[in-house]
Design brief:
Length: about 100
């Protein structure tokens, strides 16, 4: 099961989130079994279950030129990550602009 990147960024507001809410830290390596398909240890695995670059997810940039993780952000996830009480139109507009520049 993948780790919730919104939880790591302290932005998950889903009551019954389907992703793991654990933060092992960025120094913990990515689980290669999970990255290549399936890790049978699940939540008990001591490595990060992600295929997405956390730095890119949080900032829109990745400073690791050798990073093999995904650098894509889905628009529906960006818009859905903000609760209506915390929603800042500027953040969504900036994210949408960045996505349009990246995809064009």
């Amino acid at each position: 099961m993948p780790v919730c990147l919104y939880f790591i960024a302290d932005k998950c507001n889903r009551e019954n989130c389907a992703f793991l809410h654990i933060n092992l830290g960025k120094d913990v390596p990515v689980c290669q079994k999970f990255f290549t398909g399936y890790c049978d240890k699940g939540a008990q695995c001591g490595k990060r279950h992600t295929k997405d670059c956390e730095e890119y997810f949080e900032t829109g940039l990745c400073t690791d030129i050798h990073c093999k993780l995904s650098h894509e952000r889905q628009l529906r996830n960006i818009a859905g990550s903000f609760s209506s009480s915390k929603c800042r139109v500027e953040e969504i507009i900036i994210d949408l602009f960045i996505m349009s520049v990246i995809t064009n």
